[in-house]
Design brief:
Radius of gyration: 26 Å
InterPro entries: HTH_LacI (IPR000843), LacI/GalR-like_sensor (IPR046335), Lambda_DNA-bd_dom_sf (IPR010982), Peripla_BP_I (IPR028082)
Number of domains: 3
GO molecular function, one term: DNA-binding transcription factor activity
Strand order of the largest sheet: 2-1-3-4-5-11
CATH architecture of the largest domain: 3-Layer(aba) Sandwich
Keywords: DNA-binding, Repressor, Transcription, Transcription regulation
Structural class: alpha/beta
Order of helices and strands: HHHHEHEHEEEHEHEHEHEEHEE
Number of helices: 11
Mean pLDDT: 90
Protein name: LacI family transcriptional regulator
CATH class of the largest domain: Alpha Beta
């Protein structure tokens, strides 16, 4: 079958080839009446015309492709919201996202960057599954946008969650409910886990403003899954009764799920006997456990949108400092007032 050409659309619409070109490319549309534009698009659809994207890119020096290099986002359901946000913006502006998931392999990452720059993508986003400070890989275009990570050297547009503020929001929720013995079930000690330090700083800030002296025994660490959360919470339950927490702020929702298990094994009810706040608002966990978990949401979708808007040049950015995206509180049913002491 012969390829349908732009001249065929012009004949079908009764206009010049130049008019068809301007309408379908979006150039000069302010000089062409809406009725004519509609007629051209209807004619193109009716005869099955598809623009030659290769020829168009040679003319405009644009491929309308945005490269996105990530570590493991594509295989992580809750972080995949970043991809959804970026893709929605790209689609709205007529662009295609080309995703390369490197599995955090340095050699694959180098190959991905070389391949995408070789394909002359219009812009690039460099993303990580969780908040990290990273060294900018060699070969990244100068206007690359960093998503859920920030370059140690600075000088690049970047967006990360405001994890310190998130720690503040989580701890204030528990203080506002009347709690004074509040534990922080944290991630393992690891300099790369930036969020652990920032959330702990937020936790300490709220204790200070509430006049609560931090108890080092209420800051425990564990593997960042349900088993780690359960083991860390059992450490807290082993404390003398007068030092045990009435509320727990967990580094993430999976650890909070483990805290639920530890509480139930002790015959405790949530939130009657113990209040718990998580972090992430992870799908299939936070809203599904019993009772549904009050948690701080990571703004994955919003960060993805911001990064793509900056990459496309439709939003300004500050290269000297990353944007700190708000992490909102999602209130459900796992927080209540502290239990009344026995005998009262």
């Amino acid at each position: 079958m012969a390829r349908v050409r732009m001249s065929d659309v012009a004949v079908a619409a009764g206009v010049s080839t130049a008019t068809v070109s301007m309408v379908l490319s979006g150039a000069g549309s302010d000089r062409i009446s809406p009725q004519t534009q509609a007629r051209v698009r209807e004619a193109a659809a009716a005869i099955g015309y598809a623009p030659n994207s290769v020829a168009r890119s040679l003319r405009t020096q644009r491929t309308r492709m945005i490269g996105l290099v990530s570590d493991t986002i594509a295989t992580t359901p809750f972080a995949g919201r970043m991809l959804a946000g970026a893709n929605d913006v790209a689609r709205d502006h007529g662009n295609l996202v080309v995703l390369v998931n490197t599995d955090d392999d340095a050699a694959q990452e180098r190959q991905a960057i070389q391949a995408l720059t070789g394909q002359r993508v219009d812009a690039m986003i460099y993303a990580r599954m969780w908040h990290r400070v990273v060294d900018a890989p060699a070969g990244l275009p100068a206007d690359t946008v960093f998503l859920d990570c920030r370059p140690a050297q600075g000088g690049w547009p970047a967006v990360v969650p405001d994890d310190r503020r998130g720690g503040v929001v989580a701890t204030r929720e528990l203080v506002a409910a009347g709690h004074r013995r509040i534990a922080y079930v944290d991630a393992p000690r690891d300099d790369e886990v930036v969020a652990s330090r920032l959330r702990h700083e937020g936790y300490l800030e709220v204790l200070a403003e509430a006049g609560i002296t931090p108890d080092p025994a209420l800051h425990v660490r564990g593997i960042t899954d349900a088993g780690g959360g359960r083991a860390a919470t059992e450490e807290l339950f082993a404390l003398p009764a007068e030092r045990r927490p009435t509320a727990i702020f967990c580094f993430n929702d999976r650890m909070a799920m483990g805290a639920y298990t530890a509480a139930y094994r002790r015959g405790l009810r949530i939130p009657d006997d113990l209040s718990i706040v998580g972090y992430d608002d992870q799908q299939l966990i936070a809203a599904e456990i019993d009772p549904p978990l009050t948690t701080v949401a990571l703004p994955h979708y919003e960060m993805g949108r911001w990064a793509m808007e900056v990459a496309l040049g439709v939003r300004e950015s500050d290269r000297d400092a990353p944007l700190l995206m708000d992490c909102p509180m999602i209130r459900r049913d796992s927080v209540g007032p502290p239990p009344t002491p026995a005998g009262n």
